Amino acid sequence: MTQKLKKHRRSDKAGLPPGSLIHVGEKKMGDVALHLMRYGVDVLDERSLSDFHDYERKDSAGVIDWLDVVGLHEAPLIEEIGETFSIHPLVLEDILNTEQRPKTDEYEDFLYVVLKMLDIDEQTGDLTIEQVSFILKDNLVISFQERIGDVFEPVRERIRSTAGRFRRLGADYLLYALMDSVVDRYFVILERLGEQIEDTEDLLLAHPDQETVRSIYKMKRELLILRHAVWPLREAVNTIRKTESSLIQLQTRTYFGDLYDHVIQNIDTVENFRETVSGMLDLYLSSLSNRMNDVMKVLTVIATLFIPLTFIVGIYGMNFKYMPELEWKLGYPFVWVIMGFIAFAMIYLFKRKKWL
Amino acid sequence: MTQKLKKHRRSDKAGLPPGSLIHVGEKKMGDVALHLMRYGVDVLDERSLSDFHDYERKDSAGVIDWLDVVGLHEAPLIEEIGETFSIHPLVLEDILNTEQRPKTDEYEDFLYVVLKMLDIDEQTGDLTIEQVSFILKDNLVISFQERIGDVFEPVRERIRSTAGRFRRLGADYLLYALMDSVVDRYFVILERLGEQIEDTEDLLLAHPDQETVRSIYKMKRELLILRHAVWPLREAVNTIRKTESSLIQLQTRTYFGDLYDHVIQNIDTVENFRETVSGMLDLYLSSLSNRMNDVMKVLTVIATLFIPLTFIVGIYGMNFKYMPELEWKLGYPFVWVIMGFIAFAMIYLFKRKKWL
Amino acid sequence: MTQKLKKHRRSDKAGLPPGSLIHVGEKKMGDVALHLMRYGVDVLDERSLSDFHDYERKDSAGVIDWLDVVGLHEAPLIEEIGETFSIHPLVLEDILNTEQRPKTDEYEDFLYVVLKMLDIDEQTGDLTIEQVSFILKDNLVISFQERIGDVFEPVRERIRSTAGRFRRLGADYLLYALMDSVVDRYFVILERLGEQIEDTEDLLLAHPDQETVRSIYKMKRELLILRHAVWPLREAVNTIRKTESSLIQLQTRTYFGDLYDHVIQNIDTVENFRETVSGMLDLYLSSLSNRMNDVMKVLTVIATLFIPLTFIVGIYGMNFKYMPELEWKLGYPFVWVIMGFIAFAMIYLFKRKKWL
Amino acid sequence: MTQKLKKHRRSDKAGLPPGSLIHVGEKKMGDVALHLMRYGVDVLDERSLSDFHDYERKDSAGVIDWLDVVGLHEAPLIEEIGETFSIHPLVLEDILNTEQRPKTDEYEDFLYVVLKMLDIDEQTGDLTIEQVSFILKDNLVISFQERIGDVFEPVRERIRSTAGRFRRLGADYLLYALMDSVVDRYFVILERLGEQIEDTEDLLLAHPDQETVRSIYKMKRELLILRHAVWPLREAVNTIRKTESSLIQLQTRTYFGDLYDHVIQNIDTVENFRETVSGMLDLYLSSLSNRMNDVMKVLTVIATLFIPLTFIVGIYGMNFKYMPELEWKLGYPFVWVIMGFIAFAMIYLFKRKKWL
Amino acid sequence: MTQKLKKHRRSDKAGLPPGSLIHVGEKKMGDVALHLMRYGVDVLDERSLSDFHDYERKDSAGVIDWLDVVGLHEAPLIEEIGETFSIHPLVLEDILNTEQRPKTDEYEDFLYVVLKMLDIDEQTGDLTIEQVSFILKDNLVISFQERIGDVFEPVRERIRSTAGRFRRLGADYLLYALMDSVVDRYFVILERLGEQIEDTEDLLLAHPDQETVRSIYKMKRELLILRHAVWPLREAVNTIRKTESSLIQLQTRTYFGDLYDHVIQNIDTVENFRETVSGMLDLYLSSLSNRMNDVMKVLTVIATLFIPLTFIVGIYGMNFKYMPELEWKLGYPFVWVIMGFIAFAMIYLFKRKKWL
Ligand SMILES: [Mg+2]
Ligand SMILES: [Mg+2]
Ligand SMILES: [Mg+2]
Ligand SMILES: [Mg+2]
Ligand SMILES: [Mg+2]
Ligand SMILES: [Mg+2]
Ligand SMILES: [Mg+2]
Ligand SMILES: [Mg+2]
Ligand SMILES: [Mg+2]
Ligand SMILES: [Mg+2]
Ligand SMILES: [Mg+2]
Ligand SMILES: [Mg+2]
Ligand SMILES: [Mg+2]
Ligand SMILES: [Mg+2]
Ligand SMILES: [Mg+2]
Ligand SMILES: [Mg+2]
Ligand SMILES: [Mg+2]
Ligand SMILES: [Mg+2]
Ligand SMILES: [Mg+2]
Ligand SMILES: [Mg+2]
Ligand SMILES: [Mg+2]
Ligand SMILES: [Mg+2]
Ligand SMILES: [Mg+2]
Ligand SMILES: [Mg+2]
Ligand SMILES: [Mg+2]
Ligand SMILES: [Mg+2]
Ligand SMILES: [Mg+2]
Ligand SMILES: [Mg+2]
Ligand SMILES: [Mg+2]
Ligand SMILES: [Mg+2]
Ligand SMILES: [Mg+2]
Do domains D7-286 and D293-352 have the same CATH topology? Predict the structure, then answer.
């Protein structure tokens, strides 16, 4: 059975009761995938669930469950997960509405974090944007994403490895690791954008054209997207770092502090790029004006040089019966001398005005 | 009897005592309509009142009255309502003056909320703006609007339905639901504006003209209106969420928190659009300059190519008696060779300057 | 005795001790006028004082004195008033210096409020600006203004009328009423400015010229004046509203809260107008560029069409003895055909470039 | 012995230990001058010290010493003064470094205030800038300035006079009076700048040229200097007003409050001027564009009118043997008719486009 | 063995666990150098360590160790140092990642400070940027820099000298001295930039060209770098000044207060320069427009003067058989008179329009 990808829009929800579970955004993949990772110091159980009913919570101390939900378009599944873990309907609504702004909401027994995962499409080079939500409960992290991707794979590797300290740490550290891997991707994107900016700058100084303006405009828009991803994230990370909730242990707060630093660095770079890109358009306009000036000078030099001369030859092209100069023996060379004098005078003037 | 719609202006009130009940703004409909909805878990009574004296308050626990007043131009009616429910004259004045800025005022036994309901006129595509005020008292919500509309209809549907939990919730939840339906409409407007912006962008890159500038200017003004509607609303919703008044129950505050999120999202989008639209004018100007450059190059190439040649043919159009070249057998082809050479040299120069 | 109106400037006070009573500003009327209004529930006494010594304070409960001083250029009178009511010399200095910024200063037993009264000169249509100061003491308000005007007349009417509640209210309510009548005038000015802005917008889109720029510039300056009047007023009104002084009664604070709303509305409108007006210059420049483009296209089309043709006819105007084409029977029509072909090719090219 | 005025720069101090006493800035006068004024209710002793060792402190109640040090280039003298009055080396360093930003530093037993004294050079009309530092101790004020000037002269006059209350007031009042006389000078400078701005505006509307741009640019820079003088001064004055130090008496705080007002007024005016001046460049550019438009229209009208006509006369200047029109009896007048028709058509079109 | 300098990028760390020690940035020198300075009132021991194992801590009261690590590309060495002094892995990661933003992090028993050392490359005149980190523990300062330089040399000299008080002061003073020497370098850079700005201004007014724009653009970027170095440094220094940690003694706080002043001065100057440089581009554009105007006027004067005249001589160059004027005796001089009249009329008009 073929299934068309359809896009729900925010306006489809206008007038519906709060907590109405409707997926807002593009449907980015076929079936929803559930992936469970259960780990502790000596425990490691990793599997894909074909049905959420296969999931069973086991409350043994130090054993952490990470449930990764990929695909947001099956509202009933999300609702069921919500009921199982007693998540407030307004949170479920936010998870499904992919136009959230990054934030952290504190509830009595869980934390809800939502942020934007950005990436660069390898084919088109365009920026892709995806919403990722996290629920942090006691010994449990649920992540919701829109599309399969490899951003969390390094985290899985670190859990699988027995070498690291990861399995000894709590669910809060898992939340940190997942958020950190999202933020790390921002650095990659900003580096690429930085290269693009440098290329455009070189182009702008060498031979600016309308195409360059389009690429400036495109970068401006991508920076706007990045800005909307990172600015509110600062507050979201800070809320976790400063929360009074016991879900975040003291030692993990240092890690969230480091993450906070990374977000600030991203904000700095974004603002820096924004200013550079915004200055480019001025540079482009000044460069255009400069060239226009050059064009106008050439036109003016040629025109003001030859128009008077053409007038002179026009005079002696007249057919009056009585024009004494025409009869002179040296009339013709004399005209050349006059024209030569005028031409030299003009050129001297242009030189003085530095137009030549 | 025909009745002319007249508009009172803010300046008509200059010098009047505070609390003077004069409707400020356009009169947007004929008669004032009163609609009462009385509901509780097992109660549902809905009717139009032709006269406010038909209204009678019944204080039974869990029964909520929603009185919807449509049309603000009958000041005595508003005054009577004010007296019945002991509303401060300054509040009544604000209800009638449709140039309020969104806000929440806390009084001892009621909350006063005023905001802007925006819509798109289906005929003209223009933004319409209407002021909506709410009074929240114990088990009572009074809404004041300027014009009949269907924005509150979904709320009425939810009250009528026995399925939902609506009737079990308090008057504060009703206030939330009404405000939410107003804010939901902003999303619809912003989506349409977003489409317009994208269309204009395409137009701007394809073939910009003065018409595009007008539409940019129009969008700028609509965004200014939206901005004035949403920015102060943030503070207004926050005041409700954080109020110490017992009129707002704990569980409803979560809903107002969600509404607050929506307002912030609206603000973000508005600011985003504002920046995009403001950048468009620069794009337009750069595109104009570019085209001017092209025009100038064409003019310059043609003029500097032919003006010297025209000068040369002018020379041999002179009628001097003694012009040796005219007598030469190969004078004419020789002139062609010289002109050909000059033309090629010019074209070579233009190519090097990349004007061709 | 004729008396020349002279203007003292702020710099005339440089180096003088603080509290030096010198009138700074233009002298705006001939003699200083004193007007006393004494009222209570059953009392109403209103008269002009030709001499301040005629004034006598009577301290009976519920009787309020409003002393209105019109004209600030007689420093000794102001000093005498100051001594009579024990007003700090620095306050007297501020009253006389008409370049104050709106503010409220709290002293032990009185409040000092200064603000700007703006108006539109009926003859010239220009904005006039006047400084108004208020002293609020127990059962006493002294107002100082620079020029006779009718702004306070409605307040006097309300005091005279036995119908209203005015006479039952305190001196703080009188202060509110006076300040409110000043702020109400701002609405009137802003409405007129709003109309001017709309007119200028229409003009700008229809046929912009240098005159329009001048009127934009004038509006910009008037908005700057308005801005300086309303922005600090917000803080000044808020200080009264939140003061711990017993001079402001609880019930009057609600009225000052309403006044505060009005000031905020004024600020909003001013900022709104400022943005609109500032965008106008960009619109004007884009419109100029557009027109220049049109002019250039016409020039370019005509010039590039005829310059090559003129060259061709120039060729056959040469007087070479041996020019075979001149002898051809069909030489002349042939040249016409060639020129026709060139003209059509050019026109086709212009059409494709959308210059025609 | 002649002595060359040399300028130390901030970078000469790079790497030196803190508190290194090196004068940074231009040396603005020959020898350092010391002037002592000792006064109390019945005491007045005023003299110039040729040597700082001549100074002797006398601690009698109510007797205040004001030591005025003019010239900062003799570091050992400043060091000696510092040791005598136990001033922290970092403060001495700040006194000598004339690139301080206005500030107030509170130390245990003294206050340190530094600000900028601005003036207008009578010869060149340029803004001059000088750093003034104050040390306030018990019954003692030390002022440090770079150059002899008459700004403090009015304060000396008031001290000398037995009439005023000055001598009855404390050292904190002296500090106030000195700072006030510096700030008063700002008003004078701003008034002159205001006149310059108005002159430039008139010039800009009448006949703008590159010279006007230069003067706009000069005003911009002077406003930048003023801005750097007044903005931090606000904080500096506020620190004094709010200090917990007993060096500032309660009654003097009112005076510092007045000074604070003056600084705010200066800030307002500076920002106002900055906005006006910044708008001037836009006005200039719009005026330039307008003129360019006029120039282009003239060129276009003349060129498009005569180029086609010149083409026509060119046709009949050709020398083809067989050109029937040339033989016509009415050929010549006919051509005139055609050209007349073309000219009228063109002129009609230009009128319609409002280019004429 | 030759060793290629390779650059690690921030993105190489994406997905790695926190605290992964990888050097991010350019490798700026060959081998890592360790330099130890151990000093107290009577102690001075200074040597280069070829191996970190040569280092041995000696805890005697009043003896301070300053370990200067130059070169950050040997991660294992940094890790070893980190273990020896129990530094948190996240701090080590920050030390190695040279894209930190200046900050101070407080840990239980140490302070971590990171800032940017800027310098001017003597060969190229370009700004170089280097990251410097400091660890302050009890009686210990560790500094980490990327490259050998002479910025800290004056500090070493002051330690070596027995004259100064340096050796009597604590490790916190050493930290201050090192940070101060970095900040002092900013003044040097800003002075040079200030000179460049002045030179560019002169150039801009004398003969602006595209090269000037490039140098404006370059200054803009350097100011952006400076801005990112100094703005966050303010907070970093303030954190030290206000810290509750006992690592910073009371008397040293005054010195950090002075450093804070210097940072603020730097910020002021940077913002000042930014505004000046940003205004330059506007000046350049206005200057370009002005020149274009001049060019256009010359073209227009010449063209509108000669085009009509050329038309006239064209008329009498026509070959019509019947052209009465050609037969006139005074036809030729008559034409001259007419042309002379037209030329004078044109010149009069141009004069009136002030184009000549
Ligand atoms: Mg909803
Ligand atoms: Mg939500
Ligand atoms: Mg994904
Ligand atoms: Mg990270
Ligand atoms: Mg950066
Ligand atoms: Mg710009
Ligand atoms: Mg009113
Ligand atoms: Mg109101
Ligand atoms: Mg409605
Ligand atoms: Mg909603
Ligand atoms: Mg509006
Ligand atoms: Mg967005
Ligand atoms: Mg713009
Ligand atoms: Mg004074
Ligand atoms: Mg004052
Ligand atoms: Mg008046
Ligand atoms: Mg009012
Ligand atoms: Mg408004
Ligand atoms: Mg503008
Ligand atoms: Mg130093
Ligand atoms: Mg200092
Ligand atoms: Mg001086
Ligand atoms: Mg003063
Ligand atoms: Mg002003
Ligand atoms: Mg500008
Ligand atoms: Mg990482
Ligand atoms: Mg880090
Ligand atoms: Mg180094
Ligand atoms: Mg320093
Ligand atoms: Mg400066
Ligand atoms: Mg600027």
Answer: no
Which residues of chain C are within 8 Å of residue D277 when distances are taken between CB atoms?
A: none
Residue spans of the domains in chain A: they are: 7-286, 293-352
Size of interface B-C (CB pairs under 8 A): 148
In order of A151, B263, B270, C177, D328, the CA distances from B237 in angstroms are 37, 8, 18, 31, 91
Q: How confident is the model over D252-267, as a mean pLDDT?
A: 96
Mean pLDDT over the full length of chain D: 90
Q: Check pLDDT > 60 for residue E288.
A: yes
Write b or e for each residue in D62-95: b if 16 or more Cβ atoms lie within 10 A of its Cβ, otherwise e.
Answer: ebbbbbbbbbbbbeebbbebbeeeebbbbbbbbb
- Which of A255, A285, A310 lies at the smallest CB-CB distance from E18? A255
Q: What pLDDT score does D6 carry?
A: 56
What is the share, in percent, of chain D residues with pLDDT greater than 90?
A: 60
Please judge whether C154 and B16 are an interchain contact, meaning their C-beta atoms are less than 8 angstroms apart.
Answer: yes
- From C290, which residue of chain D is nearest by alpha-carbon distance? D293
C-alpha distance from C98 to closest chain B C-alpha (Å):
24
CB–CB contact B302 C303 (8 Å): yes
Q: Report residue C196's pLDDT band, with 50, 70 and 90 as the boundaries.
A: very high
How do residues C206-259 score in pLDDT, each as one tens digit? 777 878 888 898 999 999 999 999 999 999 999 999 999 999 999 999 999 999
Task: Please judge whether C213 and D293 are an interchain contact, meaning their C-beta atoms are less than 8 angstroms apart.
Answer: no
| CATH number, domain B7-286 | 3.30.460.20
Ligand whose nearest atom lies closest to the CA of C285: 19
Chain C CB contacts of B207 under 8 Å are 354
Query: What confidence tens digit (pLDDT) does each residue in A56-78 have?
Result: 877 778 899 999 999 988 889 99
Bridge partner residues of E8 (DSSP): E25
Residues of C in contact with B328 (CB under 8 A): 320-322
Name the residue among E187, E285, E355 with its Cβ closest to that of D11.
E187
Output the pLDDT for position C1.
Answer: 39
Query: Residue A262's closest chain E neighbor by CA?
Result: E100
| Domain B293-352: assigned CATH number | 1.20.58.340
Answer whether residue B84 shows pLDDT above 50.
Answer: yes
Q: Which ligand is nearest to the CA of A258?
A: 27
Q: Do D228 and E268 touch (CB under 8 A)?
A: yes
Residue E1 confidence (pLDDT) above 50: no
Q: Which chains touch B (3 or more CB pairs under 8 A)?
A: A, C
